[in-house]
Specification:
mainly alpha, flat, transmembrane transporter activity
Amino acid sequence: MSYSPRSPNPNQSDENRRLYNPYQDLNIPAQTLYKLPTSPEYLFQEESIAQRRSWGENLTYYTGIGYLGGAIIGAGKGLTEGVKAFEPADSKKIKVNRILNSCGKFGGKYGNHAGIIGLLYAGMESGMVAVRDTDDIINSVVAGLGTGALYKAAAGPRSAAVAGAIGGLAVGVAVTGKQVLKRYVPI
């Protein structure tokens, strides 16, 4: 049995009523209402010329990837630390609690550290692109070097220099590896 609305006045018939269609006067076919653009839309024309992410997208991407990666690695370390902390008299509930607590402790800590490194790297790389007006490997390596040095600057100049060298070397290897994969591995 289907529902049929009744008129409030029982003496009035349904013959004098019609359903309201809000689109009847538009005279536009329904297919053209939902045709969305297939190419990305840009606010400024110069953004459409560059074949790279904007500084904001870059910042969000590297910070997010850094935090997620750090949180996963930290959760793995927390899992091992939680299992090491088991005592023979612990119940199953206490063991699960130990694991969850240590995963949360190390996951958040490592995630925050890696997210800050990603934030620094994205800012420096975008700054290098803006200053040099070109996007190449040098920008990435200098940004890695600067990120490592700035991240460990509070530990002293020697630690900053070592961390900067490690950061520049790591980014150089990553960028070179990406270029090698693009060139020699068919997709």
